[in-house]
Design brief:
The structure holds 2 protein chains of 2 kinds. By secondary structure, chain A is mostly beta strands. Chain A is built from no helices and 11 strands. In chain A, strands 2, 4, 5, 6, 9, 10 and 11 form a 7-stranded mixed β-sheet that branches. In chain A, strands 1-3-8-7 form a 4-stranded antiparallel β-sheet, with no helix packed on it. Chain A is globular. In chain B, about 0% of the residues lie in helices and about 50% in strands. Chain B is globular. Classes of the chains: A mainly beta, B mainly beta. At the A-B interface, strand 5 of A face strand 6 and strand 7 of B.
Chain lengths: ~120, ~110
Amino acid sequence: EVQLVESGGGLVQPGGSLRLSCAASGFTFSSYWMNWVRQAPGKGLEWVANIKQDGSDKYYVDSVKGRFTISRDNAKNSLYLQMNSLRVEDTAVYYCARDPYGSGGWYDYWGRGTLVTVSS
Amino acid sequence: DIVMTQSPDSLAVSLGERATINCKSSQSLFYSSNNKNYLAWYQQKPGQPPKLLIYWASTRESGVPDRFSGSGSGTDFTLTISSLQAEDVAVYYCQQYYGAPPFTFGQGTKLEIK
């Protein structure tokens, strides 16, 4: 059974940092592009970043470029999102999601998400 | 960036009736080299992550009931629920995955029972 489990969310002050993790199981993690998608409270979905199978290609939405870094450790079946210089508008549930197509596709499995709250 | 616009924002339909949700993209999502439209549909129930329903605009994900169907091409797409069930109450999102990132979502359509 495919499982994605996010962790690392919490309350952080504006300007602070946080590192999210996503533990994957039930599939060959190293064979898939992986993504982070976020959802602000009561709002819609926003794609944040994705990363190629071997970590060599990474893409970001403009609003997080230079502040967030996506990475992965295929030996640990884990995806990460390092978030620096956090802003109030980064407050959201962050989901990791698998792309079965590759380099930009739909998302067939999602984790349950981890809540990041940026507030003073 | 490609802008995705859904209509309506909310919809109330009687049980057993048809529900139709529209999604319009700011540029064509059709790629002629493979004859595919780069569009997906998701269902999200309260407190849950999104669930994939449809990809390539009309291909139903495994396990999704056949009352859900997707149609359209180019810039105009539709998600249809042929006979609304109580468990279909949710917010529905379209998403484009054409070309380079960012891969944008529509704003969502809230579906309720009339």
